[in-house]
Amino acid sequence: MHTFWQDIRFGLRTLRKSPGFTAVAIIVITLGIGINATVFTLANAVLYKNLPFANSERILYIQSHNRVNGDDPGISYPDFRDFRAQVKSFDGLAAMTDSNADISDKTSVPQRYQAFVFSANAFSVIGQKPVLGRDFLPEDERPGATPVAILSYGLWETRYAKDPGVIGRSIRINEKPTVVIGVMPRGLQFPEQADLWMPLIPTAEMEKRERRSLDMFGRLAANATLGSAGSEMDTLASRLSREYPDSNKDIGARVMTFNEYANGGRIRTVFLAMLGAVGFVLMIACANVANLMLGRAVGRSREISIRSALGASRWRIVRQLLVESVILSTAGGILGWLVALWGVRVFDAAVIPNGKPSFIIFTADYTVLAYVAAITLGTGILFGLAPALRLSRMDINVALKDGGHGTSGAMRGKFLSALLVVAEMSLAVVLLAGAGLLIRSFLKMYQAPIGVRTDHVLTMRLLLRDTKYPNPGDQVSFHQQLNARLLAVPGVEAVALASNLPGGGSSRYDYELEGKPPVDERKRPNTRALTISPEYFRVMGVQPRSGRAFTDADGVSGFPVVIVNDDFAATYWPNENALGKRLRLVTQPVGAKPGTPPSPQEWLTVVGLLPNIIQNNIGLDQRDPMIYLPYRQRPARGINVVARTLVPPATLGDQFRREVQAIDEDLPVINLTPLEVVLQRRSWPWRVFGTMFGIFAAIALLLASVGLYAVIAHSVNQRTQEIGVRVAMGASRWNILRLIFSQGMRQLAIGLIVGLAAAFGVTRILSALLVGISPTDPVTFTAVAVVLTIAGLLGCW
After folding, report:
1. β-strands 176-183, 148-151: how paired?
2. What's the per-residue H, E or C state across 173-228?
3. Is 564 helix (H, G, I), strand (E, B) or coil?
4. Where do the DSSP E strands lie in 207-353?
5. Tell me: the pLDDT tens digits for 567-611?
6. CA-closest candidate to residue 64, choices 243, 252, 258
7. Prediction pTM value
């Protein structure tokens, strides 16, 4: 320990004598460790942390699985009963499904909340008890029982001001008097974003095995594992498949952790890709500092030789040099930790407005601290090991003869420095390619014309209760009253209805074209469809390319009509005039009872041809064949109201809410938001993650360029005498530049070739995140090569 502390003190003095080198090395390490710690903190919260309550690691999800097509059809209530009665790997199984709860009482305005319907034993399965009131009882889930609900702490706090008197109070939920029986602990919103919970009461429809509407979760038994539980559940599912082949054929079951259930697919891909990206940045940083230390080692060859001559062992020399590198990495780790704390706060602020799940809490816990400590120590050893080993193998006689000028040492380190630069360049290429693809993908979405004017449009969604508005006539009457009231609001220019907003998806209908009967009635084509009122095109600032828009008479009298977009006309009537063509939907009649089989409806005549409007909610740059139906022809309980305003739309929100509740005081207004904000929220993942990858790539490019510069600059310093001789013998400025550039460009070229080859494979991982861009997009790869070449040329210059 005595000699170890000597090494530390000597290392600190040595680094203090080279403030420039020390500052640059610490900055590079800080960047590498800082962004690694930031991303690991985010990934730890999303992918690895358990639910925010005790023993949550034993809460597992059971998902049905179609062994043929891989779908998840859900779990039926009879299957849930059978699983619960037979399973041995779980101490308890519970069932749930999500729902909506419209609360209307005198406490505040009617509002929609996220509700979950739980089997009565659900909270005991996850080991949670109310802080106020009681849990569900078995009698609460019996048909005919008094409706009850348990509130989340957040809902109790915001709507009821933490009034303990709410327990036992009857409030209206979905227009039914419901008794509040409990309040759950602060922060518990299981499974996600839950505002309240209601008991699962089986109905006659739920008793059908083909009705698969439930999810299932359970507490793992003490003697069971994830693997054994999965095997048992799949065996039980196979038994049900044999016993009930009509409803359960090919249906298996799989068991997964909470994170696999909640954060699979694209989210997992994003964070794993980010972890890989920042790992590349850290490797570039290590290579950079290793190169700096190699260059510095040349000047220390005499010092190391004297230490060896005085009896220092090879291990003592290696240890001394590793101590110095670990001191550097420790300083970088401490500063990197501060960078991570700042970075996590910035990321959290960016995602909170877009609805971050309640169970994701970005905190730098002990796991993150251990990770930072590990990479801090690891990077110190990694970038310090190569210079330490090279110096420890130095020929003492040659080094002393060189007099500390390091000529011999420089020659020995030249190949290793060049190899590190090539590695930096290769890693930078992969990062730049990935970032370029994500940024191009976001720009493609952002710049793609949506097809409508998004400014000065206020939107809100209404869902009429079937108990109060049971038939299409009642629904039409409500919307007529609302339309008249909203038009009377000062600042409102036009009001319309639409089944979906632009970029917000659409309905899908099977259909037939007149004169083109389907070859197989079971394989009819289907199309996206939007139901709109006559003023919709005016609100959205678009007019039919030919023909006409809908009128108030459409759907009330006369022949049924439809409007199609350019893509639909070009796909099904190429080189023909679409006006006057006819099609018919194959669907349930308007107002039909649930379960009515679909059948061909009346023929619809095309009266207008509309420019393409983006309706796809998967990729905001993707257009599809679309048809538009008049609202009165197919009225619906759930509808979006859109209004073009003469004033900033957000200023009319409260007035719109009052006009709705003047007609129906129990009807909540959902998502009262300007259209521009709606579209911005839908593109936020590409914007946020694209920006992060861009930052990683910019840091990688900077570090790689500095690394190339440092190697070339060190080489030129070592070759000053040689260059002087060349000039004295008649070499021109151009000859000297070509000499230096050839060295740097050779390393750059090798790095580009290796990096581009690696990028072609690695960027395929990002394919699920790209919109309208190929993972091997030639424009991106060409731009990467050009940018890196320019950066390399600047470094050489």
Report:
1. parallel
2. ECCEEEEEEEECCCCCCCCCCCCEEEECCCCCCCCCCCCEEEEEEEEECCCCCHHH
3. strand
4. 212-220, 251-257
5. 999 998 988 899 999 999 988 877 667 667 788 888 999 999 999
6. 252
7. 0.76
